[in-house]
TrEMBL record:
SUPFAM superfamilies: NAD(P)-linked oxidoreductase. Residues 46-300 form the NADP-dependent oxidoreductase domain. This is Aldo/keto reductase. It comes from Pyxidicoccus parkwayensis. The lineage of its organism: Bacteria, Pseudomonadati, Myxococcota, Myxococcia, Myxococcales. Pfam families: Aldo_ket_red.
Length: 326
């Protein structure tokens, strides 16, 4: 571990592993269904999750990110930690509350998760996370905080989060949607008993959607940890997307002898305000491709070559919303 999750947070590796695609049989990553084959039973998926976690740990990854709504992600992570005999100080674990998984282990469902940012949900899900992850839980985040949910104005929830912070857990929030920057700047102002509440933010920033960058830099300057999710845009910035507008990325990847996802991850790793970038790998092969990002030397020239791929935030998030569960 060579970085820290903010000015007062635990140590993290520059790359971490997010378990959104590993903890449930259906997800919106392009080609997710082909990553698991026909057997997507709980046992089969737990074995594959453990294989990817093993490869990640062997590759130097020490930050692992889950959520209550990621199916059995917390349980898979907990069983892996126990099986490998890892101690809390060996890794840093973060999770999230605010969505409840409702797909009943089905790939297709009317609702895969239900959002609720009220105090009873926080209390229930914190107890569930602690029952599984216990002393490993270093970071607990509001899952996809928005203005609409009212969570940043809910004094009961904010007070409960402050008590969690007093227990030594870093309190953070994750963001999603075209208003990420606005929500983050509001969160930077949140105080409980005169003290800043949050110490970490997890947000989307990638070669297609860079709009949150300035606000994330502000959070970093304020001493927050900054975790970047969806660095490969749910598979759009991988070899699985053959869209003509992404040809500059594929060309650059060929020149460098790596896969497109390695270039996409390298672009995020190069940002000076980033604490950790999440790999969302579902297979060991994908994880190894992702690891190659650490050997890519980023430059202003590379950034300029890929700059035209950027999309307007609302365009990007509309495309993300249209991705099928598979």
């Amino acid at each position: 571990m060579n970085r820290y999750l903010g000015a007062h947070g635990p140590a993290v590796s520059s790359l971490g592993l997010g378990l959104a695609a590993l903890g449930r049989p259906g997800y919106i990553t392009l080609g997710h269904g082909s990553d698991f084959g026909r057997d997507r039973s709980v046992g089969a998926m737990e074995r594959q999750a453990h294989e990817v976690l093993d490869a990640a740990y062997s590759g130097g990854l020490r930050y692992f990110d889950a959520a209550r709504s990621y199916g059995r992600a917390e349980a898979f992570l907990a069983s892996w930690l126990a099986a490998r005999g890892l101690r809390p100080g060996d890794v840093t674990v973060g999770s999230k509350w605010g969505y409840t998984y409702t797909a009943d282990w089905q790939v297709q469902a009317e609702h895969h998760e239900v959002k609720d940012h009220t105090l009873p949900t926080f209390q229930r899900q914190l107890a569930e996370s602690r029952a599984l992850l216990g002393p490993y839980l270093s970071l607990y985040q509001i899952h996809s905080a928005t203005f609409e949910s009212g969570v940043l104005e809910d004094t009961a929830v904010l007070s409960a989060l402050a008590r969690l912070r007093e227990d030594g857990v870093v309190v953070g929030l994750s963001l999603s949607g075209a208003s990420q920057a606005d929500v983050l700047r509001r969160a930077l102002e949140v105080r409980v008993d005169g003290a800043p509440l949050f110490g970490c933010v997890q947000a989307t920033w990638n070669l297609l959607e860079r709009s949150a960058g300035p606000a994330l830099s502000e959070a970093h300057a304020a001493g927050w940890g900054v975790i970047i999710k969806e660095a490969v845009a749910n598979g759009r910035l991988t070899s699985r997307d053959s869209s003509p507008e992404l040809s500059p990325l594929r060309e650059l990847a060929r020149e460098r002898g790596v896969t497109p996802d390695a270039i996409a991850l390298a672009a995020v790793l190069a940002q000076p305000w980033v604490s950790v970038v999440l790999s969302g790998a579902s297979t060991v092969e994908q994880l190894h491709d992702n690891l190659a990002s650490r050997a890519v030397s980023w430059s202003a020239e590379l950034d300029a070559r890929l700059g035209e791929m950027q999309e307007a935030p609302r365009t990007y998030w509309a495309k993300r919303s249209s991705l099928p569960w598979n």
